Structure formats: structure tokens, C-alpha cells
Amino acid sequence: MELSRKRQRELKKLRREAENVWDEQREVLERAAGILRDASRQAASVARDDVAPRVRQTYEKRIVPGVEAGVDSVRHAASATRDRFVDDVLPAVTGAIGSAIAVLDVARDKRIRDALRQVSSTGRELATRGSQRVGIVEVKSQPGPGRYILIGLGVVATAAIAYAAWQTLRTDDDLWVEEEIAAPEA
After folding, report:
1. Quick one: three-class SS letters along the chain?
2. How far is CA 150 from the centre of its chain?
3. Which UniProt key words apply to this protein (predicted)?
4. Region 78-105: what's the mean pLDDT?
5. What are the extents of the domains in the chain?
6. C-beta of residue 132 within 8 angstroms of C-beta of residue 123
7. Can you give the pTM of this predicted structure?
8. Is the pLDDT of residue 103 over 80?
9. Residue 17 has what pLDDT?
């Protein structure tokens, strides 16, 4: 496709203008980069000369004493906890363990176990008789053999009913015998 001379001149003119704009943009970007470098140098200088000393002073005056006070508080709390544990908790635990061991030693002695059984059974009988006389405890009747006989009869009756139902409802192919009819032979 061919372009007319007028179009070609317009395209060349546009191309030159685009190149000029591109060159101008490059120069602007180079100037901006230079300004940015200068600004970063100035910012580093200000940070080094003004900001860093202020930060260091604030750290030394406000943060370090607070941290030291916190460390001292933690040390004091740990010391108080250790003292409380050693003075209060540890003796109570060792006393409880010692009492439990003593009770176990006593419980192992056969004579003491027999005496405790005799005293507890005698005490139980005396308490039961006394409370029955006063009317505090009602005497409950003990189940006799009649109860167990009735339970056994109920189980046998249930089994018999289940067996009768099974016999009635089962399908038995042997009950119906079909006779084969023989065809007369010719």
C-alpha cells in the first residue's frame, strides 16, 4: 500500500515530534533521578545527624529504665513464688504424702485390718438395731426364694409360648406330599 506524499510528510513530521518528546522525557527523567539522589543524600544526612541522636536519647531515657524495672519485677516475682512454694506448698504436699504412706502401712497390718472389720461390723449392727428401734430406718424385707421361683416360671412360660408360635408359623415342605400321577402307558 502506497502513501501519498502529503501523508508521508505528515508521518515524518509526527515521527520527529515523537522523537523530540521522547528526548525531552528522557531529560526530565534524568533530572528527576538526579534530584532524587540529592534528596536521598540529604535524608540520610538528616537521619544521621538529627534523628539518630534523638532516638538514642529516647531509648536510653525511657525504654532502658522500663526494661530494667520489668526485669527487677520479674526477679522479685520469681523469688516470691519460689519462697511461697518452699515455705507453704512443699511442706503441705510432703505432709500429705507422709500421712498417706502411714495409712498404707497401718492398712497392711493384718491385726489392724481384722480389728477394723470386727469394729465396723459390730458398729453397723448396733447402728442398724438402734435406728430400727427409734424408727429412723425402716426394715427392708430381703427377697426370698419365692421371687426367684416366679422369675424362673416366667422365663419357662415365655420360652414355651415362643416355641408354640414358631411351630405354628414355620413352613414345612415335608408335611405336604404330592403324589405323582402316572400317565397310562400305551
Report:
1. CCCCHHHHHHHHHHHHHHHHHHHHHHHHHHHHHHHHHHHHHHHHHHHHHHHHHHHHHHHHHHHHHHHHHHHHHHHHHHHHHHHHHHHHHHHHHHHHHHHHHHHHHHHHCHHHHHHHHHHHHHHHHHHHHHHHHHCCCCCCCCCCHHHHHHHHHHHHHHHHHHHHHHHHHCCCHHHCCCCCCCCCCC
2. 53
3. Membrane, Transmembrane, Transmembrane helix
4. 79
5. 10-137
6. no
7. 0.32
8. no
9. 92
